[in-house]
Amino acid sequence: MMVNSDLLLRSEIRRKPRVCAVSYLNTAPLVWGAVNGPQKGLLDLTFAVPSICADRVVEGDADIGLVPAIEMARHGLEMIPIGIACRGPVRSILLISDRPFEEIRTLAVDSGSRTSVQLARVILARKFGVSPTILTMDPDLVGMLELADAALIIGDAALALDPAEIDMPCLDLGEEWVEMTGLPFVFAAWSGRKENLKPELTELLKASCLYGLGQLDTIIKEEADRRGFSEDLVHQYLTRNICFLLGDEEAAGLALYLEYVRELDGAPAAVTETGIHDQTTGSR
Ligand SMILES: C=C(O[C@@H]1C=C(C(=O)O)C=C[C@H]1O)C(=O)O
């Protein structure tokens, strides 16, 4: 008995950290070191849409995940200051409407999203004075607009659309947020239960990200090819739209977002930060 529990304990200790990353293009730099670089083989890494990343962390199936900001707050998770943020247009969070925004009564949202659904509610309420009913669906613009007045599409599905070719009112919610508040917006960050955010793991994730940021030319070529996007789009997206290192301004943007969501319907607490104390921002 003693021997068995001892073995169990040791295998627990040796088990690789279970990390759930977002499957979209924006996550490639964050995991590049863990997939292709010096951190390769050190993590039990899986990929999923953001809503599933949150579920895996909350249900204990992952130690840490790229968790949508709203879910970090809802579940009292801690975060490390590395994730997906923007300081202007984000390009991949699009709200497309078949009528003026003030007339939206129903909004179909991508089932992979959690943070941007609440961001859409905040922008629609504060700027356009509407509080639509939310319908959760697969990210198919035509199908969404058959059932709702407007559609929220995120991630690679949004990158596959060309906003210039959409003949309907279209909002970039990153741009809307920055215009409204003067602060960056944080969509997701590496996050988990306090006891799982071990310093070695947070250092490893930081090293993987820094490695990725040093390999952007390679990432742009390989990911453009793999995902069927133009290199120009991927270059613009990863070097101008998305920020990866979260600093004090991102923290302020996150706190304000949570306050605005709380004003809409009460609840989410603040998110606490842990692990890495280097507050360099990722703006370029
Ligand atoms: C900017 C993005 O951020 C994403 C949006 C999220 C959300 O809406 O819950 C969560 C994770 C991020 O990957 C995007 O994927 O387009």
UniProtKB/TrEMBL annotation:
What molecular function terms (GO) are annotated for this protein? hydro-lyase activity
User: Quick one: which pathway?
Assistant: Quinol/quinone metabolism; menaquinone biosynthesis
Q: Which UniProt keywords apply?
A: Lyase, Menaquinone biosynthesis
Entries under SUPFAM superfamilies matching the protein = Periplasmic binding protein-like II
Reported EC number(s) for this entry are: 4.2.1.151
Is the Lyase keyword given for this protein? yes
Q: Which reaction does it catalyse?
A: chorismate = 3-[(1-carboxyvinyl)-oxy]benzoate + H2O
Q: Which residues form the signal peptide?
A: none
Among InterPro entries, the record links this protein to: Menaquinone_biosynth, MqnA
User: What's an example Gene Ontology biological process for this entry?
Assistant: menaquinone biosynthetic process
Please verify whether the record's keywords include Lyase.
Answer: yes
Q: Which HAMAP family match?
A: MqnA
Family that this chain belongs to: Belongs to the MqnA/MqnD family. MqnA subfamily.
Quote the function comment for this protein. Answer: Catalyzes the dehydration of chorismate into 3-[(1-carboxyvinyl)oxy]benzoate, a step in the biosynthesis of menaquinone (MK, vitamin K2).
Record-given protein name:
Chorismate dehydratase
Source species, please?
Paludibaculum fermentans
The gene that this protein is the product of is: mqnA
